[in-house]
């Protein structure tokens, strides 16, 4: 089983992200030379933000901003259908090129997480994208206020916990957070996806982005690797 790629950063990754900076800078109206100049810093910051030793606290005030008082119309089945429709989507040889990364880099949330974690938007073009995938599915289905959005798995989990939407029971449509070594602390989290079902045999079926060889895939995972679950507020 391939470990999720969240901590390793190399010169080649920095170079690839620098090339991507021109693309995203153009889309965002940012000077390309300026974006390229600080891409290395952005990649390092985005990578450091995903390392368990990096303490980035999820602030309750920010978390509460995504609560919704409007009627919730999106169901777990609709979210899972959207996630399943992405199965087979793959990153390119540079570890980027997905619509999930491109969407996130151009989003309002990217500006907020850059302010929180440092770096720049272009760094997300080649960054680990499992949490971006979950966030994109929420956006596309209209369930973002329930699913949350972040590029950093630990912060995404802390958002659920801060909004009293965290637990240890697998439910269809729940957002599941993993630690490959079996750790149970939020700071141990390395990967995220959606729960399809509890198989009642010590495993769960999931749909995940940036898994295997950098694809969206349906997987079966042992519950021993689950840190916990975030529970979006779905329509019945």
UniProtKB/TrEMBL annotation:
Any Pfam family hit: CHAP
Protein keywords: Signal
Domain Peptidase C51: 126-210
Signal peptide (residue range): 1-32
Superkingdom in the source lineage: Bacteria
InterPro entries tied to this protein: CHAP_dom
Protein's recorded name: Peptidase C51 domain-containing protein
Naturally occurring in which organism (per UniProt): Nonomuraea rubra
Classification of source organism: Bacteria, Bacillati, Actinomycetota, Actinomycetes, Streptosporangiales
């Amino acid at each position: 089983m391939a470990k999720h790629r969240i901590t390793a950063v190399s010169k080649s990754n920095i170079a690839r992200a620098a090339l991507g900076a021109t693309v995203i800078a153009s889309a965002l109206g940012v000077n390309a030379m300026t974006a390229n100049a600080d891409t290395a810093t952005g990649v390092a910051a985005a990578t450091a933000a995903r390392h368990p030793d990096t303490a980035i606290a999820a602030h309750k005030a920010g978390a509460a901003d995504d609560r919704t008082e409007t009627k919730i119309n999106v169901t777990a089945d609709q979210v899972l259908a959207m996630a399943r429709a992405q199965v087979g989507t793959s990153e390119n040889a540079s570890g980027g090129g997905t619509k999930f990364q491109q969407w996130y880099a151009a989003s309002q949330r990217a500006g907020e997480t850059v302010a929180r974690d440092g770096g720049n938007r272009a760094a997300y073009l080649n960054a680990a994208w499992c949490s971006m995938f979950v966030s994109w599915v929420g956006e596309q289905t209209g369930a973002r206020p329930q699913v949350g959005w972040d590029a950093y798995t630990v912060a995404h989990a802390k958002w659920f916990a801060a909004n009293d939407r965290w637990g240890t029971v697998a439910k269809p449509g729940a957002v599941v957070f993993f630690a490959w070594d079996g750790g149970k602390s939020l700071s141990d989290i390395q990967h995220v996806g959606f729960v399809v079902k509890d198989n009642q045999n010590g495993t769960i079926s999931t749909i995940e982005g940036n898994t295997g060889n950098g694809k969206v895939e349906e997987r079966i995972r042992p519950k021993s690797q689950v840190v916990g679950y975030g529970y979006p507020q779905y329509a019945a």
